[in-house]
Write a structure and sequence with these properties.
The complex is a heterodimer of chains A (314) and B (266). Chain A has 314 residues and is mostly helical. Chain A has helices at residues 12-23, 26-56, 74-78, 82-115, 119-134, 137-148, 153-160, 164-172, 185-209, 213-221, 226-254, 258-263, 270-279, 284-307, and strands at 59-60, 67-68. Chain A has a two-stranded antiparallel ribbon with strand order 1-2. The two termini of chain A are 30 Å apart. Chain B has helices at residues 12-35, 54-60, 63-96, 102-114, 117-131, 137-163, 166-173, 178-207, 210-215, 222-231, 236-265. The chains are: A mainly alpha (314), B mainly alpha (266). Chains A and B meet through helix 1, helix 2, helix 4, helix 5 and helix 6 of A and helix 1, helix 3, helix 4, helix 5 and helix 6 of B.
Amino acid sequence: MTATALGPAAPRPLLHRLGTFIYLRPWLVLSLLLGPPLLWMVVIYLGSIASLIVQSFFYLDPFTGQVIREFTLSTYRELFVPAHLEIFLRTALMAAAVTIATAVLAFPFAYFMARFASRRTKAALYLAVLLPLWSSYLVRVYAWRLILAKEGILNWFLERLNLLGVLEAALRIPVIGGPSLSVSFLGMFIVFVYVWLPYMILPIQAALERVPQSLLEASGDLGARPRRTLRHVTLPLAFPGVLAGSIFTFSLTLGDFVVPYSLGNSSFFIGQAVLSFTGTAFNIPLAAAFTVVPMVIMGFYLIGARELGAFEAL
Amino acid sequence: MKHSEPAARSPLGLRLVTVAVLLFMHLPMAIILLYAFTTDESTFVFPPPGLTTNWFRVAMGRADVWRALGLSMRVAAVSTLVAIVLGTLAAAAVYRARFFGREAISFALVLPIALPGIVSGIALRSAIGVLNVPFSFWTIVVGHATFCMVVVYNNVLARFRRTGRSQIEASMDLGANPFQTFRHVVLPAIATALLAGGILAFALSFDEIIVTTFTAGQEQTLPIWMFSQLTKPRSRPVTNVVAVFVVALTTIPILLANRLTERTIE
Protein backbone atom coordinates (compact mmCIF):
# COMPACT_ATOMS: atom_id res chain seq x y z
CA MET A 1 0.00 0.00 0.00
CA THR A 2 2.91 2.36 0.44
CA ALA A 3 5.80 3.44 -1.71
CA THR A 4 8.24 2.47 1.00
CA ALA A 5 7.35 -1.17 0.53
CA LEU A 6 8.35 -1.16 -3.13
CA GLY A 7 11.49 -3.10 -3.92
CA PRO A 8 13.78 -1.95 -6.76
CA ALA A 9 12.09 -2.94 -10.05
CA ALA A 10 10.72 -6.22 -8.84
CA PRO A 11 8.95 -8.37 -11.46
CA ARG A 12 5.22 -8.10 -11.31
CA PRO A 13 4.21 -11.47 -9.88
CA LEU A 14 6.71 -11.02 -7.08
CA LEU A 15 5.33 -7.56 -6.44
CA HIS A 16 1.88 -9.00 -6.31
CA ARG A 17 2.99 -11.73 -3.92
CA LEU A 18 4.82 -9.21 -1.78
CA GLY A 19 1.77 -6.96 -1.66
CA THR A 20 -0.48 -9.80 -0.65
CA PHE A 21 2.06 -11.06 1.86
CA ILE A 22 2.09 -7.67 3.54
CA TYR A 23 -1.63 -7.13 3.24
CA LEU A 24 -2.45 -10.35 5.02
CA ARG A 25 -0.36 -9.37 8.02
CA PRO A 26 -2.10 -6.46 9.71
CA TRP A 27 0.77 -5.82 12.10
CA LEU A 28 3.13 -5.48 9.12
CA VAL A 29 0.80 -3.09 7.32
CA LEU A 30 0.45 -1.06 10.46
CA SER A 31 4.16 -0.86 11.13
CA LEU A 32 4.90 0.09 7.52
CA LEU A 33 2.27 2.82 7.61
CA LEU A 34 2.86 4.10 11.09
CA GLY A 35 6.61 3.51 11.27
CA PRO A 36 7.93 6.48 9.26
CA PRO A 37 5.69 9.23 10.71
CA LEU A 38 5.99 7.83 14.22
CA LEU A 39 9.78 7.58 13.97
CA TRP A 40 9.91 11.15 12.70
CA MET A 41 7.76 12.49 15.51
CA VAL A 42 9.45 10.49 18.26
CA VAL A 43 13.05 10.86 17.16
CA ILE A 44 13.01 14.38 15.78
CA TYR A 45 10.28 16.15 17.67
CA LEU A 46 10.04 14.41 21.03
CA GLY A 47 13.79 13.86 20.87
CA SER A 48 14.28 17.59 20.47
CA ILE A 49 11.94 18.32 23.35
CA ALA A 50 13.88 15.82 25.46
CA SER A 51 17.16 17.47 24.53
CA LEU A 52 15.60 20.81 25.45
CA ILE A 53 14.72 19.52 28.89
CA VAL A 54 18.14 17.92 29.36
CA GLN A 55 19.83 21.17 28.32
CA SER A 56 17.81 23.09 30.88
CA PHE A 57 19.68 21.16 33.58
CA PHE A 58 23.08 22.21 32.20
CA TYR A 59 24.59 25.60 32.83
CA LEU A 60 26.67 28.26 31.19
CA ASP A 61 30.08 28.93 32.63
CA PRO A 62 29.97 32.70 33.15
CA PHE A 63 33.71 33.08 32.59
CA THR A 64 34.34 30.98 29.52
CA GLY A 65 30.85 31.26 27.99
CA GLN A 66 30.88 27.48 27.48
CA VAL A 67 27.92 25.24 28.21
CA ILE A 68 28.93 22.86 31.00
CA ARG A 69 27.19 19.51 30.57
CA GLU A 70 26.73 18.70 34.23
CA PHE A 71 23.48 18.27 36.09
CA THR A 72 22.55 21.38 37.98
CA LEU A 73 19.48 23.22 39.16
CA SER A 74 21.24 26.56 39.08
CA THR A 75 19.80 27.44 35.68
CA TYR A 76 16.30 26.95 37.03
CA ARG A 77 17.21 29.06 40.04
CA GLU A 78 17.93 31.90 37.62
CA LEU A 79 14.30 31.85 36.53
CA PHE A 80 13.33 33.25 39.92
CA VAL A 81 15.33 36.44 39.53
CA PRO A 82 12.77 39.29 39.83
CA ALA A 83 13.53 40.55 36.32
CA HIS A 84 12.75 37.10 34.89
CA LEU A 85 9.63 36.59 36.99
CA GLU A 86 8.44 39.91 35.63
CA ILE A 87 8.86 38.63 32.08
CA PHE A 88 6.73 35.56 32.82
CA LEU A 89 4.06 37.61 34.52
CA ARG A 90 4.01 40.23 31.76
CA THR A 91 3.67 37.58 29.04
CA ALA A 92 0.98 35.61 30.86
CA LEU A 93 -1.03 38.77 31.56
CA MET A 94 -0.76 39.84 27.93
CA ALA A 95 -1.84 36.36 26.80
CA ALA A 96 -4.82 36.44 29.15
CA ALA A 97 -5.86 39.95 28.09
CA VAL A 98 -5.52 39.07 24.41
CA THR A 99 -7.52 35.88 24.90
CA ILE A 100 -10.38 37.69 26.61
CA ALA A 101 -10.45 40.47 24.03
CA THR A 102 -10.44 38.07 21.06
CA ALA A 103 -13.26 36.07 22.67
CA VAL A 104 -15.31 39.24 23.15
CA LEU A 105 -14.82 40.28 19.51
CA ALA A 106 -15.08 36.79 18.04
CA PHE A 107 -18.28 35.73 19.72
CA PRO A 108 -20.70 38.19 18.10
CA PHE A 109 -19.04 37.65 14.72
CA ALA A 110 -19.30 33.86 15.05
CA TYR A 111 -22.83 34.20 16.39
CA PHE A 112 -23.87 36.20 13.35
CA MET A 113 -22.21 33.63 11.06
CA ALA A 114 -23.91 30.68 12.70
CA ARG A 115 -27.36 32.13 13.36
CA PHE A 116 -28.20 34.84 10.89
CA ALA A 117 -25.97 34.66 7.81
CA SER A 118 -27.40 33.22 4.62
CA ARG A 119 -25.48 30.33 3.11
CA ARG A 120 -23.72 32.59 0.68
CA THR A 121 -22.79 35.21 3.27
CA LYS A 122 -21.62 32.49 5.60
CA ALA A 123 -19.29 31.06 2.95
CA ALA A 124 -17.88 34.52 2.26
CA LEU A 125 -17.38 35.28 5.96
CA TYR A 126 -15.75 31.89 6.42
CA LEU A 127 -13.21 32.75 3.73
CA ALA A 128 -12.70 36.17 5.27
CA VAL A 129 -11.65 34.43 8.49
CA LEU A 130 -9.71 31.62 6.84
CA LEU A 131 -7.45 33.76 4.68
CA PRO A 132 -5.75 35.72 7.46
CA LEU A 133 -5.46 32.52 9.48
CA TRP A 134 -3.32 30.80 6.89
CA SER A 135 -1.20 33.55 5.47
CA SER A 136 1.01 36.56 5.73
CA TYR A 137 1.51 36.64 9.48
CA LEU A 138 4.49 38.99 9.20
CA VAL A 139 2.78 41.19 6.67
CA ARG A 140 -0.15 41.50 9.03
CA VAL A 141 2.10 42.57 11.88
CA TYR A 142 3.95 44.92 9.56
CA ALA A 143 0.69 46.57 8.47
CA TRP A 144 0.20 47.80 12.01
CA ARG A 145 3.58 49.47 11.99
CA LEU A 146 2.19 51.68 9.24
CA ILE A 147 -1.14 52.18 10.99
CA LEU A 148 0.10 52.90 14.50
CA ALA A 149 3.04 55.10 13.56
CA LYS A 150 2.86 58.63 14.97
CA GLU A 151 2.62 60.09 11.47
CA GLY A 152 0.36 57.20 10.36
CA ILE A 153 -3.26 56.79 9.43
CA LEU A 154 -4.70 56.21 12.91
CA ASN A 155 -3.34 59.46 14.32
CA TRP A 156 -4.42 61.31 11.18
CA PHE A 157 -7.91 59.94 11.63
CA LEU A 158 -8.12 60.70 15.34
CA GLU A 159 -6.90 64.22 14.65
CA ARG A 160 -9.74 64.77 12.14
CA LEU A 161 -12.20 63.51 14.77
CA ASN A 162 -10.62 65.68 17.44
CA LEU A 163 -9.92 62.58 19.49
CA LEU A 164 -6.13 62.85 19.72
CA GLY A 165 -6.53 63.86 23.34
CA VAL A 166 -8.11 60.51 24.17
CA LEU A 167 -5.21 58.65 22.61
CA GLU A 168 -2.67 60.81 24.41
CA ALA A 169 -4.46 60.19 27.69
CA ALA A 170 -4.39 56.44 27.03
CA LEU A 171 -0.70 56.58 26.21
CA ARG A 172 -0.01 58.43 29.46
CA ILE A 173 -1.31 55.46 31.48
CA PRO A 174 1.75 53.92 33.11
CA VAL A 175 2.92 50.46 31.97
CA ILE A 176 0.53 50.02 29.06
CA GLY A 177 1.25 53.42 27.50
CA GLY A 178 4.34 54.76 25.83
CA PRO A 179 5.65 57.49 23.55
CA SER A 180 3.37 56.33 20.72
CA LEU A 181 1.03 53.43 19.97
CA SER A 182 3.72 51.82 17.85
CA VAL A 183 5.94 51.54 20.95
CA SER A 184 3.56 50.51 23.72
CA PHE A 185 1.89 47.52 25.30
CA LEU A 186 -1.42 49.00 24.21
CA GLY A 187 -0.36 48.86 20.56
CA MET A 188 1.07 45.37 21.06
CA PHE A 189 -2.22 44.27 22.57
CA ILE A 190 -4.16 45.59 19.56
CA VAL A 191 -1.86 43.78 17.14
CA PHE A 192 -2.01 40.50 19.07
CA VAL A 193 -5.82 40.66 19.07
CA TYR A 194 -5.73 41.37 15.35
CA VAL A 195 -3.44 38.50 14.37
CA TRP A 196 -5.04 35.82 16.56
CA LEU A 197 -8.70 36.76 16.10
CA PRO A 198 -9.36 34.19 13.31
CA TYR A 199 -8.13 31.38 15.60
CA MET A 200 -10.86 32.31 18.05
CA ILE A 201 -13.68 32.83 15.56
CA LEU A 202 -13.53 29.43 13.86
CA PRO A 203 -13.91 27.15 16.92
CA ILE A 204 -16.66 29.37 18.36
CA GLN A 205 -18.51 29.31 15.06
CA ALA A 206 -18.16 25.53 14.85
CA ALA A 207 -19.50 25.16 18.40
CA LEU A 208 -22.43 27.49 17.67
CA GLU A 209 -23.30 25.52 14.53
CA ARG A 210 -23.65 22.45 16.70
CA VAL A 211 -26.16 24.01 19.09
CA PRO A 212 -29.41 22.25 18.13
CA GLN A 213 -32.11 24.50 16.75
CA SER A 214 -34.66 22.53 18.79
CA LEU A 215 -33.11 23.63 22.06
CA LEU A 216 -33.39 27.26 21.07
CA GLU A 217 -36.99 26.77 20.05
CA ALA A 218 -37.75 24.96 23.29
CA SER A 219 -36.25 27.82 25.23
CA GLY A 220 -38.36 30.29 23.30
CA ASP A 221 -41.48 28.18 23.72
CA LEU A 222 -40.91 28.12 27.45
CA GLY A 223 -41.07 31.87 27.42
CA ALA A 224 -37.44 32.94 27.37
CA ARG A 225 -36.65 36.14 25.51
CA PRO A 226 -33.83 35.83 22.90
CA ARG A 227 -31.41 37.51 25.31
CA ARG A 228 -32.19 34.96 27.99
CA THR A 229 -31.86 32.05 25.56
CA LEU A 230 -28.48 33.43 24.53
CA ARG A 231 -27.34 33.67 28.12
CA HIS A 232 -28.66 30.35 29.43
CA VAL A 233 -28.68 28.05 26.39
CA THR A 234 -26.38 29.27 23.63
CA LEU A 235 -23.50 30.62 25.71
CA PRO A 236 -23.01 27.52 27.88
CA LEU A 237 -23.19 25.26 24.84
CA ALA A 238 -20.72 27.40 22.90
CA PHE A 239 -18.30 27.74 25.78
CA PRO A 240 -16.17 24.72 24.78
CA GLY A 241 -15.62 26.49 21.46
CA VAL A 242 -14.39 29.59 23.27
CA LEU A 243 -12.04 27.40 25.30
CA ALA A 244 -10.75 25.66 22.18
CA GLY A 245 -10.06 29.04 20.60
CA SER A 246 -8.40 30.28 23.76
CA ILE A 247 -5.88 27.43 23.56
CA PHE A 248 -4.62 28.96 20.32
CA THR A 249 -4.73 32.60 21.33
CA PHE A 250 -3.07 31.93 24.68
CA SER A 251 -0.40 29.61 23.32
CA LEU A 252 0.38 31.78 20.31
CA THR A 253 0.77 34.87 22.48
CA LEU A 254 3.00 33.04 24.97
CA GLY A 255 5.33 31.88 22.21
CA ASP A 256 5.54 34.94 20.00
CA PHE A 257 8.45 37.29 19.67
CA VAL A 258 7.61 39.04 16.42
CA VAL A 259 4.95 41.37 17.83
CA PRO A 260 6.92 42.30 20.98
CA TYR A 261 10.03 43.01 18.92
CA SER A 262 8.09 45.11 16.42
CA LEU A 263 6.02 47.16 18.85
CA GLY A 264 7.55 46.71 22.28
CA ASN A 265 10.11 48.53 24.30
CA SER A 266 12.95 47.15 26.38
CA SER A 267 10.61 45.22 28.73
CA PHE A 268 10.94 41.71 27.33
CA PHE A 269 8.39 39.00 26.70
CA ILE A 270 9.19 35.29 26.98
CA GLY A 271 9.83 34.82 23.27
CA GLN A 272 12.17 37.80 23.10
CA ALA A 273 14.08 36.64 26.15
CA VAL A 274 14.54 33.14 24.73
CA LEU A 275 15.66 34.54 21.40
CA SER A 276 18.19 36.86 22.99
CA PHE A 277 19.58 34.09 25.24
CA THR A 278 20.21 31.87 22.22
CA GLY A 279 21.13 34.55 19.71
CA THR A 280 23.58 36.79 21.45
CA ALA A 281 24.44 35.14 24.75
CA PHE A 282 24.57 31.52 23.49
CA ASN A 283 23.04 30.59 26.81
CA ILE A 284 21.02 27.64 25.55
CA PRO A 285 20.50 26.17 29.05
CA LEU A 286 18.80 29.34 30.29
CA ALA A 287 16.77 29.62 27.07
CA ALA A 288 15.70 26.00 27.56
CA ALA A 289 14.71 26.52 31.19
CA PHE A 290 12.84 29.65 30.13
CA THR A 291 10.81 27.69 27.57
CA VAL A 292 9.89 25.05 30.11
CA VAL A 293 7.72 27.71 31.78
CA PRO A 294 5.31 28.24 28.83
CA MET A 295 5.34 24.47 28.32
CA VAL A 296 4.18 23.93 31.89
CA ILE A 297 1.64 26.76 31.64
CA MET A 298 0.24 25.27 28.43
CA GLY A 299 0.26 21.81 29.97
CA PHE A 300 -2.00 22.95 32.81
CA TYR A 301 -4.06 24.99 30.39
CA LEU A 302 -4.63 21.98 28.12
CA ILE A 303 -5.57 19.74 31.04
CA GLY A 304 -8.01 22.34 32.34
CA ALA A 305 -9.48 22.94 28.88
CA ARG A 306 -9.90 19.21 28.40
CA GLU A 307 -11.75 18.88 31.69
CA LEU A 308 -14.11 21.63 30.55
CA GLY A 309 -14.76 19.91 27.22
CA ALA A 310 -12.67 22.02 24.85
CA PHE A 311 -11.31 19.03 22.92
CA GLU A 312 -14.72 17.99 21.68
CA ALA A 313 -14.99 21.43 20.13
CA LEU A 314 -11.71 21.29 18.23
CA MET B 1 -23.02 19.74 7.48
CA LYS B 2 -26.29 20.95 8.93
CA HIS B 3 -27.54 24.34 7.87
CA SER B 4 -30.60 25.75 9.44
CA GLU B 5 -32.23 28.60 7.57
CA PRO B 6 -31.61 32.00 9.09
CA ALA B 7 -33.90 32.17 12.09
CA ALA B 8 -34.88 35.81 11.93
CA ARG B 9 -33.56 39.18 10.96
CA SER B 10 -30.39 39.86 12.86
CA PRO B 11 -30.40 42.63 15.46
CA LEU B 12 -28.88 45.86 14.17
CA GLY B 13 -26.25 45.96 16.91
CA LEU B 14 -25.03 42.48 16.01
CA ARG B 15 -24.76 43.39 12.35
CA LEU B 16 -22.76 46.51 13.16
CA VAL B 17 -20.33 44.57 15.36
CA THR B 18 -19.92 41.94 12.64
CA VAL B 19 -19.10 44.57 10.02
CA ALA B 20 -16.72 46.30 12.42
CA VAL B 21 -14.86 43.05 13.14
CA LEU B 22 -14.72 42.31 9.43
CA LEU B 23 -13.20 45.72 8.72
CA PHE B 24 -10.74 45.30 11.60
CA MET B 25 -9.60 42.01 10.06
CA HIS B 26 -9.15 43.30 6.53
CA LEU B 27 -8.61 47.07 6.36
CA PRO B 28 -4.94 46.81 7.40
CA MET B 29 -4.23 44.84 4.24
CA ALA B 30 -5.76 47.58 2.10
CA ILE B 31 -3.53 50.09 3.85
CA ILE B 32 -0.45 48.02 3.00
CA LEU B 33 -1.52 48.11 -0.64
CA LEU B 34 -1.81 51.89 -0.54
CA TYR B 35 1.63 52.29 1.01
CA ALA B 36 3.26 50.22 -1.72
CA PHE B 37 2.61 53.20 -4.02
CA THR B 38 3.63 56.04 -1.73
CA THR B 39 6.42 58.36 -2.82
CA ASP B 40 7.49 58.81 0.79
CA GLU B 41 10.66 56.89 1.51
CA SER B 42 11.51 57.20 5.16
CA THR B 43 8.31 57.55 7.21
CA PHE B 44 4.82 56.11 7.29
CA VAL B 45 3.13 59.47 6.77
CA PHE B 46 -0.56 59.49 5.96
CA PRO B 47 -1.95 60.54 3.56
CA PRO B 48 0.90 59.64 1.18
CA PRO B 49 2.43 62.78 -0.31
CA GLY B 50 2.26 61.26 -3.79
CA LEU B 51 1.83 57.99 -5.63
CA THR B 52 4.32 56.08 -7.74
CA THR B 53 4.83 52.59 -9.14
CA ASN B 54 8.56 53.05 -8.96
CA TRP B 55 9.06 50.83 -5.88
CA PHE B 56 7.87 47.77 -7.73
CA ARG B 57 10.77 48.21 -10.15
CA VAL B 58 13.21 48.80 -7.28
CA ALA B 59 11.98 45.69 -5.46
CA MET B 60 12.30 43.59 -8.61
CA GLY B 61 15.98 44.47 -8.75
CA ARG B 62 16.73 43.49 -5.17
CA ALA B 63 18.92 40.37 -5.10
CA ASP B 64 18.42 39.81 -1.34
CA VAL B 65 14.63 39.67 -1.77
CA TRP B 66 14.92 37.17 -4.62
CA ARG B 67 17.35 35.02 -2.66
CA ALA B 68 15.04 34.94 0.34
CA LEU B 69 12.02 34.20 -1.84
CA GLY B 70 13.88 31.37 -3.59
CA LEU B 71 14.93 29.81 -0.30
CA SER B 72 11.40 30.06 1.11
CA MET B 73 9.99 28.40 -2.00
CA ARG B 74 12.48 25.54 -1.91
CA VAL B 75 12.03 24.99 1.83
CA ALA B 76 8.24 25.00 1.50
CA ALA B 77 8.34 22.61 -1.47
CA VAL B 78 10.53 20.02 0.22
CA SER B 79 8.80 20.31 3.62
CA THR B 80 5.44 19.89 1.93
CA LEU B 81 6.63 16.75 0.13
CA VAL B 82 7.86 15.22 3.37
CA ALA B 83 4.66 16.25 5.15
CA ILE B 84 2.50 14.76 2.39
CA VAL B 85 4.23 11.37 2.57
CA LEU B 86 4.37 11.15 6.37
CA GLY B 87 0.99 12.75 6.99
CA THR B 88 -0.74 10.40 4.55
CA LEU B 89 0.94 7.35 6.07
CA ALA B 90 -0.15 8.39 9.54
CA ALA B 91 -3.70 9.08 8.36
CA ALA B 92 -3.89 5.67 6.66
CA ALA B 93 -2.64 3.94 9.80
CA VAL B 94 -5.11 5.71 12.07
CA TYR B 95 -7.97 5.09 9.65
CA ARG B 96 -7.18 1.43 8.95
CA ALA B 97 -6.28 -0.02 12.24
CA ARG B 98 -7.19 0.03 15.88
CA PHE B 99 -4.10 -0.04 18.03
CA PHE B 100 -2.87 0.95 21.41
CA GLY B 101 -2.20 4.67 21.54
CA ARG B 102 -4.17 5.51 18.41
CA GLU B 103 -5.68 8.56 20.09
CA ALA B 104 -2.21 9.75 20.98
CA ILE B 105 -1.18 10.03 17.30
CA SER B 106 -3.41 13.02 16.57
CA PHE B 107 -2.29 14.60 19.81
CA ALA B 108 1.40 14.09 19.03
CA LEU B 109 1.00 15.47 15.50
CA VAL B 110 -0.83 18.59 16.65
CA LEU B 111 1.68 19.27 19.43
CA PRO B 112 4.14 21.24 17.25
CA ILE B 113 1.30 23.67 16.47
CA ALA B 114 -0.44 23.61 19.85
CA LEU B 115 2.68 24.31 21.90
CA PRO B 116 4.00 27.86 21.81
CA GLY B 117 6.21 28.35 18.74
CA ILE B 118 9.36 29.10 20.69
CA VAL B 119 9.10 25.69 22.41
CA SER B 120 9.44 23.84 19.11
CA GLY B 121 12.03 26.33 17.95
CA ILE B 122 14.33 26.17 20.94
CA ALA B 123 13.84 22.38 21.18
CA LEU B 124 15.10 21.88 17.63
CA ARG B 125 17.82 24.46 18.25
CA SER B 126 19.05 22.60 21.31
CA ALA B 127 18.97 19.26 19.47
CA ILE B 128 20.99 20.83 16.66
CA GLY B 129 23.41 22.08 19.29
CA VAL B 130 23.69 18.76 21.12
CA LEU B 131 24.27 16.80 17.90
CA ASN B 132 26.61 19.45 16.50
CA VAL B 133 24.72 19.54 13.20
CA PRO B 134 25.60 22.58 11.09
CA PHE B 135 22.67 24.88 10.24
CA SER B 136 21.54 24.43 6.68
CA PHE B 137 18.62 24.23 4.29
CA TRP B 138 17.87 20.83 5.80
CA THR B 139 17.64 21.96 9.40
CA ILE B 140 14.94 24.42 8.28
CA VAL B 141 13.13 21.70 6.33
CA VAL B 142 13.13 19.28 9.26
CA GLY B 143 11.47 21.85 11.50
CA HIS B 144 8.89 22.84 8.89
CA ALA B 145 7.98 19.28 7.91
CA THR B 146 7.32 18.52 11.57
CA PHE B 147 4.57 21.10 11.98
CA CYS B 148 3.24 20.76 8.41
CA MET B 149 2.52 17.06 8.82
CA VAL B 150 -0.64 17.59 10.87
CA VAL B 151 -2.28 19.68 8.14
CA VAL B 152 -1.96 16.90 5.55
CA TYR B 153 -2.89 14.30 8.16
CA ASN B 154 -6.14 16.07 9.07
CA ASN B 155 -7.19 16.60 5.47
CA VAL B 156 -6.44 13.05 4.34
CA LEU B 157 -7.93 11.40 7.42
CA ALA B 158 -11.16 13.35 6.94
CA ARG B 159 -11.27 12.19 3.32
CA PHE B 160 -10.63 8.56 4.27
CA ARG B 161 -13.50 8.72 6.73
CA ARG B 162 -15.84 10.10 4.08
CA THR B 163 -14.96 7.67 1.29
CA GLY B 164 -15.16 4.54 3.41
CA ARG B 165 -13.61 1.16 2.95
CA SER B 166 -15.94 -0.58 0.49
CA GLN B 167 -14.15 0.51 -2.71
CA ILE B 168 -10.83 -0.71 -1.41
CA GLU B 169 -12.33 -4.05 -0.47
CA ALA B 170 -14.00 -4.34 -3.88
CA SER B 171 -10.69 -3.66 -5.60
CA MET B 172 -8.93 -6.34 -3.57
CA ASP B 173 -11.75 -8.80 -4.19
CA LEU B 174 -11.39 -8.22 -7.92
CA GLY B 175 -7.80 -9.36 -7.72
CA ALA B 176 -5.85 -6.11 -7.61
CA ASN B 177 -2.75 -6.23 -5.48
CA PRO B 178 -2.36 -3.61 -2.75
CA PHE B 179 -0.12 -1.43 -4.92
CA GLN B 180 -2.64 -1.44 -7.76
CA THR B 181 -5.39 -0.70 -5.28
CA PHE B 182 -3.42 2.21 -3.93
CA ARG B 183 -2.61 3.54 -7.38
CA HIS B 184 -6.07 3.18 -8.94
CA VAL B 185 -8.51 3.40 -6.04
CA VAL B 186 -7.03 5.08 -2.99
CA LEU B 187 -4.96 7.76 -4.73
CA PRO B 188 -7.79 9.12 -6.92
CA ALA B 189 -10.08 9.21 -3.88
CA ILE B 190 -7.69 11.25 -1.77
CA ALA B 191 -6.09 13.29 -4.58
CA THR B 192 -7.90 16.57 -3.89
CA ALA B 193 -7.45 16.16 -0.13
CA LEU B 194 -3.73 15.70 -0.74
CA LEU B 195 -3.65 18.79 -2.93
CA ALA B 196 -5.58 20.89 -0.40
CA GLY B 197 -3.45 19.62 2.49
CA GLY B 198 -0.32 20.18 0.43
CA ILE B 199 -1.27 23.77 -0.39
CA LEU B 200 -2.02 24.58 3.23
CA ALA B 201 1.21 22.92 4.37
CA PHE B 202 3.07 24.97 1.77
CA ALA B 203 1.39 28.16 3.00
CA LEU B 204 2.24 27.30 6.59
CA SER B 205 5.89 26.70 5.77
CA PHE B 206 6.15 29.74 3.49
CA ASP B 207 4.86 31.95 6.30
CA GLU B 208 6.65 30.49 9.32
CA ILE B 209 9.06 32.63 11.31
CA ILE B 210 9.22 31.58 14.97
CA VAL B 211 10.63 28.06 14.53
CA THR B 212 12.65 29.08 11.48
CA THR B 213 14.54 31.72 13.44
CA PHE B 214 16.03 28.95 15.57
CA THR B 215 16.82 26.48 12.78
CA ALA B 216 18.01 28.75 9.96
CA GLY B 217 21.42 29.91 11.21
CA GLN B 218 22.57 32.55 8.73
CA GLU B 219 20.09 31.59 6.01
CA GLN B 220 17.36 34.11 5.25
CA THR B 221 13.88 32.97 4.33
CA LEU B 222 11.39 35.59 3.20
CA PRO B 223 9.72 35.85 6.65
CA ILE B 224 13.13 36.27 8.26
CA TRP B 225 13.94 38.98 5.72
CA MET B 226 10.67 40.72 6.57
CA PHE B 227 11.32 40.38 10.29
CA SER B 228 14.73 42.01 9.90
CA GLN B 229 12.97 44.89 8.14
CA LEU B 230 10.45 45.11 10.97
CA THR B 231 13.07 45.48 13.66
CA LYS B 232 15.60 47.54 11.67
CA PRO B 233 13.77 49.15 8.78
CA ARG B 234 16.33 49.90 6.12
CA SER B 235 14.27 49.84 2.95
CA ARG B 236 10.67 50.63 3.78
CA PRO B 237 9.35 51.08 0.23
CA VAL B 238 10.74 47.70 -0.81
CA THR B 239 9.25 46.06 2.29
CA ASN B 240 5.83 47.48 1.39
CA VAL B 241 6.06 46.01 -2.10
CA VAL B 242 7.25 42.64 -0.81
CA ALA B 243 4.34 42.62 1.67
CA VAL B 244 1.81 43.15 -1.12
CA PHE B 245 3.53 40.49 -3.18
CA VAL B 246 3.40 37.95 -0.32
CA VAL B 247 -0.31 38.57 0.23
CA ALA B 248 -1.07 38.16 -3.47
CA LEU B 249 1.08 35.04 -3.70
CA THR B 250 -0.56 33.24 -0.79
CA THR B 251 -4.18 34.31 -1.21
CA ILE B 252 -4.90 32.47 -4.44
CA PRO B 253 -3.63 28.99 -3.44
CA ILE B 254 -5.50 29.17 -0.14
CA LEU B 255 -8.73 30.06 -1.91
CA LEU B 256 -8.06 27.08 -4.18
CA ALA B 257 -7.44 24.75 -1.24
CA ASN B 258 -10.70 25.89 0.29
CA ARG B 259 -12.56 25.13 -2.93
CA LEU B 260 -11.01 21.69 -3.15
CA THR B 261 -12.19 20.66 0.30
CA GLU B 262 -15.53 22.45 -0.04
CA ARG B 263 -16.64 20.58 -3.18
CA THR B 264 -16.40 17.23 -1.44
CA ILE B 265 -18.70 18.34 1.36
CA GLU B 266 -21.58 19.00 -1.02
